[in-house]
Write a structure and sequence with these properties.
By secondary structure, the protein is of the alpha+beta class. β10 (164-169) and β11 (175-183) form a beta hairpin. It has a domain at 2-16 and 43-155: Nucleoside Triphosphate Pyrophosphohydrolase. The chain has helices at 2-10, 19-22, 90-102, 154-157, 190-208; strands at residues 26-27, 44-55, 58-66, 77-78, 81-83, 109-114, 118-119, 124-133, 146-153, 164-169, 175-183, 186-189. Strands 1, 2, 3, 4, 5, 6, 7, 8 and 9 form a nine-stranded mixed beta sheet that branches. A three-stranded antiparallel beta sheet has the order 10-11-12. The protein is built from five helices and twelve strands. The longest helix is centred in the C-terminal third of the chain and has 19 residues, at 190-208. The two termini are 24 Å apart.
Amino acid sequence: MSDLRAWISARLDPLEVNPIEARAARSDFDLDPQHAPTARPALKPAAVLIGLVEHPEGPSVILTRRSDTLRNHTGQVALPGGRCDPGETPWQTALREAHEEIGLDPALVTLAGLSTPYRTGTDYHITPVVGFIAPGFSLTVNPDEVAEVFETPFKFLMDPLNHVQHEREIPSGITRRFYGMTWEDHFIWGATAGIMRALYDRLYAAAVA
């Protein structure tokens, strides 16, 4: 497991790097760039935690299902995270949000680095923060934000055969394409699937090229 941790960490940006300046971001429009807006307002900084739980049989990723009472993205699968408070670094945001949403003690997370930034169609600039977590912890879910917390094998999320392209017509009449990954009874899509696809490209596609 320590070898995998070192291999992943070596392929991430260091925490000190400004995520907006580090590299070109991925986005909700990767699969249909013709629909990307030509002019966008100032992006809202946000961060999520890609928490890798280091089980003996292989790491898994902590995911949540958003509460059915939330105004936006109701019931969708998400990584713990949210909007950055003024003056916060991305990793401070990711750890704070994970603690608020699922009760994950920040002291249990060994930060590894930053993955590829992701821009959403709602003008959020999301910095994925990767951290390693030893198994055996306990969580307390905030029911106002999270309906369920679960783990998905990292190996499954990093298998490109599971990155299925879907199409959906949005209210404006435009057909949008996006990645989706079905794990058990959970459909992982949208920004969460896009962030995991970007991590796959960063870790594995570059290694094969």
